């Protein structure tokens, strides 16, 4: 069997995604069939299904509806719209309706933040929800109209680019789709081009900011019989949507960057790992790939150069934020549960199938293609000495013009807020749930790796917003998305969630704040990967920057029980049908 | 011993071989770093994080940290012990660990490591999860209430028994041990009481049937000496009941 068997096992998640997409569930018969064909246990197949939020053993019904539950969706009224749809369709969140017509549920940020609230229906995005759209959706579902026949306007997702700079400027946008970067590679050779990438100082745009040229060189120099190039399009950080726009309108440049990397390091295979939420882009991306094959920009003997062979496949994710972490992404590409690997070794030398693998963000590959075509000096003419180039920001929340803004690194937060039309700003959340909450008083700070680093998420909160709702949303998000491997993230994240709920509900004491700090510090220190170590950031930032808000929320006593005695009686009340005064305990005022 | 092949553990020089982790070298030198998911017979896992140490200012799990010359490993400062204690307290509230009534009490590595770390109470709010006991197998019972997700049984079944009886399903706080059989029950699987997987559980989750409480409280594995001297419970699986544990 050897390689052939391994290749099949790596496709397990892709098979499961396909089955889920076609049948809206993965029946037991399919599980035993897959287990038999791949020579793995049925329990292992189930373990994979249970890991990914978009895969289900139980039928979800004809319409599987997932409301995007990011704080920006909530701020636009998503929770009320969900309740409205549930009421109209006489069903409860998370539970399939008896006739298996529909399931209505929530999901983590779908990356449609600037034109939300959004939902996914059978994997397709519906944007700009409002009361009337919800009414229409309810009618379509009750009439069992197939999603392909729903009004096309529902599925409109716009780019909303409001500021263009180096990368998106109309002057350079047309340069790389046609193979300029690859021609530069053939003209100057891999050694020179790698030096160009290194000289440019390009750092990874996914947030960590690792030196791109260095990463490519590690992979190139590693002893191996084959290498891989992977584009991380698992854009799951709440509030980020710039990769959505790049894949929608600049996919050619992204694929060109991947092909450039392949030519430099000597890879024959590449993968785009596309988050399940962006499945709606799959068809157009396949078309771009085919066009590039037809134009000799992919496939065998690229641009006629003997032996320059490279092609790209698309792997789908299935609702797991952790898979944006590069070693989880590799596990997921191999068809497994997305559990982060132990590091070292790093993917650059031991990645996909244990071979040297360059994994870069969508924006990084696009920037690399431009650098190859236009030179390192062109790139360095923007940004700061330590953070050359520009950054795409995904701006959402309380501002007049949410959307994509491209800025040279070094831009101040104040400038950004002015440009997007933010008024009465209380705070900004930069770099997503895992990032930093900054009060408006820190708006002189800059977007740059040496100051406030970000993969691009920029959420604005005005003075009318309750920041506790944001913190609660993010803390729940991390508990939901924890892979469950390590104790501090798995258990600590859940404890933190409960404590934050207690705080938000006005029942926390000074003792609870101390526990939040202890658990938070432990998660930061002891977690296996970045998810666990950043999960406490939202609440710890709130304690640090907004102590006066926290103080107002505290209960006056030094100790409050973790559970509500009266709420604990609810089950008994439900059973007996009583709700009179005698059926209540006044445990909390 | 050349400086090239040593690191410092709490001020003591520890020799290591190429490819060793900090845990490997410490175990060989007889130095105790508390741990639960680690067993030198299996691939390191790094999941329980109880072997948390400070290395040159950064927290690392000793079982996955490659040994390198000149590392300065802090395994017993107050900060490290306090963090380790919190991790153990988290494990205690995650499952249902009722030590006074547990067959494994006194010979339980979770309990022994918790004593070693000075844990006096569970501290955090209990989750009290509802988990069914699986008594379907003729020779072995599984009490999922005590499972700490160390995956030692998973690794033993995969790496030694070649049976893939156990795996992990779910994610986050919903992660749970599952059994590979048509019914999901142990009795319906290939599992045998002679399997390696039956003899690696650090807690009382995988227990032999037909005997219980044979050894009186006070005479159990960790009753006379602490875990730092006795070592892993799995290393004593073949001891005759009541023997002194002097190896």
DSSP strand count of chain A: 14
**Main sheet characteristics of chain B:** 5 strands, mixed
Q: What is the second-level CATH architecture of the largest domain in chain A?
A: 3-Layer(aba) Sandwich
End-to-end span of chain A in angstroms? Answer: 68 Å
Helix content of chain B: 10-25%
**Uncertain spans of chain B:** 240-247
- Count of helical segments of chain A? 26
Structure keywords:
heterodimer, A: 589 residues, alpha/beta, Glutaredoxin, Rossmann fold, 14 strands, 43% helix, disordered N terminus, B: 247 residues, alpha+beta, Ubiquitin-like (UB roll), Alpha-Beta Plaits, 5-stranded mixed β-sheet, 3-stranded antiparallel β-sheet, globular
Q: Could you please describe the fold and organization of this structure?
A:
The complex is a heterodimer of chains A (589) and B (247). Chain A has 589 residues and is of the alpha/beta class. Helix content of chain A is 43%, strand content 13%. Chain A has helices spanning 3-10, 12-23, 28-38, 42-51, 71-75, 78-88, 131-142, 170-173, 180-188, 190-200, 212-221, 242-249, 251-265, 282-294, 326-333, 362-374, 376-380, 413-420, 467-481, 487-504, 510-526, 530-534, 537-545, 547-553, 565-568, 570-576; strands at 63-68, 102-107, 119-121, 124-126, 161-163, 228-233, 269-274, 311-316, 357-361, 390-397, 403-408, 425-430, 436-439, 457-462. In chain A, a hairpin with a 5-residue loop joins strand 12 and strand 13 (436-439). Chain A is globular and about 85 Å long. Helices cover 19% and strands 15% of the residues of chain B. Mean pLDDT of chain B is 93; it is low at 240-247. By secondary structure, chain B is of the alpha+beta class. Chain B folds into 2 domains: 3-76, Ubiquitin-like (UB roll) (Roll); 103-236, Alpha-Beta Plaits (2-Layer Sandwich). Chain B has 5 helices and 10 strands. The chains are: A alpha/beta (589), B alpha+beta (247).
């Amino acid at each position: 069997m050897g390689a052939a068997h391994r290749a099949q096992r790596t496709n397990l998640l892709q098979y499961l995604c396909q089955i889920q997409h076609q049948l809206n569930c993965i029946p037991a018969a399919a599980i035993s069939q897959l287990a038999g064909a791949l020579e793995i246990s049925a329990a292992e197949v189930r373990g994979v299904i249970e890991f990914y939020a978009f895969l289900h053993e139980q039928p979800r019904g004809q319409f599987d509806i997932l409301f995007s539950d990011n704080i920006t969706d909530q701020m636009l009224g998503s929770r009320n719209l969900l309740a409205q749809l549930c009421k109209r369709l006489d069903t409860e969140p998370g539970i399939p309706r008896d006739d298996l017509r529909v399931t209505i549920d929530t999901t983590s940020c779908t990356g449609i933040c600037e034109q939300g609230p959004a939902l996914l229906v059978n994997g397709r995005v519906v944007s700009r929800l409002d009361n009337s759209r919800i009414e229409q959706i309810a009618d379509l579902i009750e009439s069992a109209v197939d999603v392909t026949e729903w009004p096309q306007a529902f599925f409109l997702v716009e780019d909303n680019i409001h500021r263009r700079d180096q990368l998106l400027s109309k002057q350079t946008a047309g340069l790389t789709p046609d193979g300029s970067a690859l021609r530069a590679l053939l003209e100057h050779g891999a050694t020179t081009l790698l030096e160009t990438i290194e000289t440019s100082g390009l750092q990874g745009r996914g947030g960590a900011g690792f030196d791109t040229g260095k990463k490519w060189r590690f992979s190139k120099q590693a002893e191996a019989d084959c290498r891989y190039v992977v584009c991380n399009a698992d854009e799951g950080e709440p509030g980020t949507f710039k990769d959505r726009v790049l894949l929608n309108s600049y996919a050619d440049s992204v694929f060109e960057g991947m092909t450039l990397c392949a030519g430099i390091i000597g890879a024959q295979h590449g993968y785009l790992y596309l988050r399940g939420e962006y499945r709606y882009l799959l068809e157009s991306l396949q078309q771009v790939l085919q066009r590039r094959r037809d134009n000799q920009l992919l496939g065998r003997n690229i641009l006629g150069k003997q032996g320059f062979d490279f092609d790209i496949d698309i792997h789908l994710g299935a609702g797991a934020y952790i898979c944006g972490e590069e070693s989880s992404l590799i596990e997921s590409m191999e068809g497994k549960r997305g559990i982060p690997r132990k590091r070292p070794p790093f993917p650059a030398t031991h990645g996909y199938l244990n071979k040297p693998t360059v994994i870069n963000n969508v924006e990084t590959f696009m920037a690399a293609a431009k650098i190859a075509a236009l030179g390192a000096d062109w790139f360095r003419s923007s940004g700061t000495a330590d953070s050359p180039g520009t950054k795409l920001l995904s701006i959402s929340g309380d501002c007049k013009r949410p959307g994509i803004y491209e800025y040279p690194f070094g831009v101040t937060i104040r400038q950004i807020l002015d440009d997007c039309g933010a008024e009465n700003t209380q705070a900004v959340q930069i770099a997503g749930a895992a990032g930093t909450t900054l009060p408006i008083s820190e708006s002189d700070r800059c977007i740059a790796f040496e100051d406030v680093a970000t993969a691009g998420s920029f959420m604005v909160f005005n003075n009318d917003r309750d920041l506790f709702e944001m913190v609660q949303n993010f803390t729940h998000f991390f508990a939901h998305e924890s892979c469950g491997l390590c104790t501090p993230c798995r258990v600590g994240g859940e404890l933190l969630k409960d404590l934050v709920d207690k705080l938000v509900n006005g029942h926390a004491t000074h003792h609870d704040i101390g526990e939040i700090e202890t658990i938070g510090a432990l998660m930061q220190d002891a977690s296996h990967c970045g998810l666990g170590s950043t999960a406490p950031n939202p609440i710890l930032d709130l304690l640090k920057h907004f102590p006066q808000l926290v103080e107002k929320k505290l209960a006056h006593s030094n100790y409050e029980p973790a559970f509500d005695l009266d709420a604990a009686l609810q089950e008994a009340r439900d059973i007996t049908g009583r709700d009179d005064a005698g059926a209540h305990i006044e445990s909390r005022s | 011993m050349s400086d090239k092949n040593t690191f410092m553990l709490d001020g003591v020089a520890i020799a290591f071989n190429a490819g060793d982790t900090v845990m490997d070298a410490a175990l060989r030198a007889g130095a105790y770093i508390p741990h639960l998911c680690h067993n030198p017979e299996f691939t390191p896992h790094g999941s329980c994080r109880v072997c948390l140490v400070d290395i040159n200012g950064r927290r690392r799990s000793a079982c996955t940290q490659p040994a390198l010359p000149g590392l300065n490993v802090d395994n017993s400062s107050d900060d490290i012990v306090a963090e380790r204690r919190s991790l153990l307290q988290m494990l205690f509230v995650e499952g249902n660990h009722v030590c006074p009534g547990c067959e494994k009490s006194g010979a339980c590595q979770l309990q022994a490591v918790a004593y070693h770390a000075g844990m006096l109470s569970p501290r955090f709010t209990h989750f009290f999860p509802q988990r069914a006991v699986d008594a379907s197998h003729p020779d072995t019972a599984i009490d999922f209430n005590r499972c700490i997700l160390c995956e030692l049984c998973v690794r033993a079944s995969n790496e030694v028994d070649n049976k893939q009886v156990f795996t992990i399903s779910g994610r986050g706080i919903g992660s749970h041990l599952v059994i590979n059989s048509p019914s999901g029950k142990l009795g319906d699987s290939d599992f045998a009481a002679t399997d390696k997987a039956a003899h690696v559980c650090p807690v009382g989750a995988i227990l032999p049937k037909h005997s219980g409480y044979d050894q009186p409280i006070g005479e159990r594995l960790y009753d006379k000496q602490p875990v730092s001297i006795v070592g892993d419970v799995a290393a004593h699986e073949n001891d005759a009941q009541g023997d002194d544990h002097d190896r």
